[in-house]
Design goal:
The chain has 410 residues and is α/β, with parallel strands linked by helices. It folds into two domains: 112 residues, Enolase-like, domain 1; 245 residues, TIM Barrel (Alpha-Beta Barrel), CATH 3.20.20.120. 37% of the residues lie in helices and 13% in strands. Helix 8 links the parallel strand 7 and strand 8. The radius of gyration is 20 Å and the shape is globular.
Length: 410
């Protein structure tokens, strides 16, 4: 068995567009005709440039190789270019291709991927969801409305979710960390209060940020949220300074979570060593793939830390996350995004039921990709998958920031 053909499909989810502006899917086929699917969670360059990177990584380091040799292919990609250090773009390309290799291996052996990773540790995976507007909400007002957020949280909990995530803390800008406006702190407290009152103890509150604060600003905000006992405080400072994140962890009585922008064990290990976070959130389409994150999960066990795979992408990366989650003992939960397009793209082959995801039983990733649907929604925009805000934090008029990939306006 050897890797032979590659096809890269860039698909754009229709409105409301949750999961980013586009998803980069890879279809890898062996010489004997077995097809594997993967997804590259890459946002630092445009999709057409990323397509070229993926094709180069495949041709240079993986074509004609046995898909079993994942360790060898990883070392080629990680080291061959005189790098031997994490490269976000190149590892993003490899991650999606590596996921496709696991899909091929599972199909060849007629076993789910997790069966090749040590088997079932978690027969079902606890899911969490971001809070999104309900049909009767005004999406322009939702992101600054604690009452609407509380309604959305209660709806999610009534559907079985036991954890909900929200991010009302203001913009993440190209300028790096900033001190939060007092209005942003007040708004964040209002969200926590309203959501806690709505769901009581039925669900955990996951407070999301995106590395937008200075160390001092993150501590101020985090301490203001403590009375509502969030389960985590996500990426409170930029991910490039582990020691500063550790200062936040030592000053705030909320567990710190981080990892969606990290890649390979080389970047996760310092987080564990320093005590900067006790919850790791790898995005498998960026972080090095399934095997590399199985290693990170093992490292996290030693530090009594938990894993909560991140998702702001399409359902192929989600499927990879689920197989990792099924196989590890230190799982906390896994992010999920429920939209009709996510569901249709994998033909309903994995779903959230009552707030949990059952371990898939079909071979490989356990999904059936609707290739025609993916090709019918090409990306024609110019924005990146996720983008930082150009304007700085507004200390006068307040902030209303939808996120790095706002929903398309129809």
């Amino acid at each position: 068995m050897r890797l032979k053909d590659l096809d890269v499909i860039v698909t754009a989810p229709p409105a409301p567009g949750w999961g980013g502006r586009y998803w980069i899917l890879v279809k890898v086929t062996t010489a004997c005709g077995i097809t594997g699917w993967g997804e590259c969670y890459a946002s630092s360059i445009g999709p057409e440039a990323m397509r070229t990177v993926i094709e180069d990584v495949f041709a240079r380091h993986m074509a004609e190789e046995n898909p079993e040799n994942i360790e060898m292919m990883f070392r080629r990609v990680y080291s061959a270019g005189f790098t031997q250090r994490p490269d976000l773009t190149v590892m993003g390309a490899f991650s999606g291709l590596e996921i496709a290799c696991w899909d091929i291996l599972g199909k060849a052996r007629e076993r789910p991927v997790y069966a090749l990773l040590g088997g079932v540790m978690n027969a079902r995976v606890r899911a969490y969801t971001y809070l999104y507007p309900l049909p009767h909400h005004d999406p322009a007002l939702f992101w600054t409305s604690a009452d609407m957020a509380a309604e959305s949280a209660l709806d999610a909990v009534n559907r079985g979710y036991t954890a909900v995530k929200f991010d009302p803390a203001g913009p993440y800008t190209r300028r790096g960390g900033h001190m939060p406006a007092m209005t942003d702190i007040a708004q964040s407290v209002a969200f926590c209060r309203a959501i806690r009152e709505a769901v009581g103890t039925r669900a955990d509150l996951l407070f999301g940020t995106h590395g937008q604060f200075t160390t001092a600003g993150a501590i101020r905000l985090g301490q203001a949220l403590e009375p509502y006992s969030p389960l985590w405080y996500e990426e409170p400072v930029p991910p490039d300074s582990v020691s500063e994140m550790a200062k936040v962890a030592n000053a705030v009585r909320i567990p710190i979570a981080t990892g969606e922008r990290l890649t390979t064990k080389a970047e996760f290990a310092p987080v564990l060593r320093s005590g900067a976070a006790s919850i790791l959130q790898p995005a498998l389409g960026r972080a090095g793939g399934i095997w590399e994150m199985k290693k990170v999960a093992a490292m996290a066990e030693v530090y009594n830390a938990q894993m909560a795979p991140h998702l702001y992408a399409g359902p192929v990366e989600w499927a990879a996350n689920i197989h990792l989650a099924v196989s590890i003992p230190n799982l906390l939960m896994a992010e999920t995004i429920e939209t009709p397009f996510h569901d249709r793209l994998i033909k309903g082959s994995i779903r959230v039921e009552g707030g949990f995801i059952q371990a898939p039983t079909a071979p490989g990733l356990g999904i059936e990709v609707d290739e025609a649907l993916a090709r019918a929604h090409p990306y024609s925009g110019t924005g990146l998958h996720l983008e930082m805000q150009e304007a700085p934090c507004d200390y006068v008029n307040g902030n209303n920031f939808e996120g790095g990939a706002p929903a398309p306006k129809e």
